[in-house]
């Protein structure tokens, strides 16, 4: 697979403009390609070490078999409706972040080892009136990190769901974080449905995370979550 590589960092360009690929237009499609930010892994000391591989800011965009490699802030799922299928996304902290509304289908989320905090999502919804969120369906959460959170409340009202997902021991038993802001436990929407694996046990989960019912999960496991039946086309044949 071809590689698109750049080493931009937040210190050089600002976080969202450090991305190797920035897709601003609607109806953007990428397929069977590696998008890499080759900046070094943040050491916790250098300011501005965040480095984005992909920023997608257009509506109705699709990604098939795309591998995204980075550490902190790998994927800026910025805004708009997006579809990711058969993708591999790697990072350490907040490596899927932004105000997008996205369905991640049959994709692997790989948490790289890091001595600091490891978090998959920092979804940026700020009120219940915002129709944004991330849904991970029939995917895997793997990696070599320890104690990784499925999401943290970077903003006040993030919405993230994992359904039918296989979770390894990389996942923190608590599952989710209110980001040391207890009041956000009342405004987050964090849900899981029929997930499996050592990291999926509901027994140690934070009380503000929901084990969804069959009825509750339905809006998140359909293409209608992103309006996909109205715009999504099959992946290109390569």
From TrEMBL:
What EC number(s) does this enzyme carry?
3.1.1.11
| Principal EC category | hydrolase
- What does the UniProt keyword field contain? Aspartyl esterase, Hydrolase
> Which reaction equation describes what this protein catalyses?
[(1->4)-alpha-D-galacturonosyl methyl ester](n) + n H2O = [(1->4)-alpha-D-galacturonosyl](n) + n methanol + n H(+)
Any Pfam family hit: Pectinesterase
- Entry keyword annotation includes Hydrolase: yes
Q: Where is the Pectinesterase catalytic domain?
A: 11-228
Has UniProt tagged this entry with the keyword Transmembrane? no
Pathway-wise, it operates in:
Glycan metabolism; pectin degradation; 2-dehydro-3-deoxy-D-gluconate from pectin: step 1/5
What the entry lists under PROSITE patterns is as follows: PECTINESTERASE_2
Question: What positions does UniProt annotate as the active site of this protein?
Answer: 94
Gene3D superfamilies registered for this protein in UniProt = Single-stranded right-handed beta-helix, Pectin lyase-like
The similarity annotation says: Belongs to the pectinesterase family.
Task: State the name under which the record lists this protein.
Answer: Pectinesterase
């Amino acid at each position: 697979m071809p590689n698109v590589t750049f080493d931009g960092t937040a210190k050089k360009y600002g976080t969202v403009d450090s991305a190797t690929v920035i897709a601003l237009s609607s109806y953007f499609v990428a397929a069977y390609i590696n998008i890499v930010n080759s900046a070094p892994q943040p050491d916790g000391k250098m300011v501005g070490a965040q480095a984005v591989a992909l920023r997608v800011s257009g509506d109705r965009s699709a990604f098939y078999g795309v591998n995204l490699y980075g550490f902190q802030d790998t994927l800026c799922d910025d805004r708009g409706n997006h579809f990711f299928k058969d993708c591999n996304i790697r990072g350490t902290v907040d490596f899927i972040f932004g105000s997008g509304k996205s369905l991640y289908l049959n994709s692997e989320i790989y948490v790289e080892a890091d001595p600091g905090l490891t978090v998959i999502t920092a979804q940026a919804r700020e009120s219940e009136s915002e129709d944004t969120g991330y849904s991970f369906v029939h995917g895997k959460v793997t990696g070599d990190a320890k104690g990784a959170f499925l999401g943290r409340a970077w903003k006040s009202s993030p919405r993230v769901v994992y359904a039918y997902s296989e979770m390894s021991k990389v996942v923190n038993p608590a599952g989710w974080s209110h980001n040391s802001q207890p009041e956000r436990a009342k405004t987050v929407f964090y849900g899981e449905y029929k997930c499996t694996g050592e990291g999926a046990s509901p027994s140690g989960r934070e009380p503000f995370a929901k084990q969804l019912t069959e009825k509750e999960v339905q809006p998140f496991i359909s293409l209608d979550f992103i309006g996909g039946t109205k715009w999504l086309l099959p992946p290109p044949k390569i």
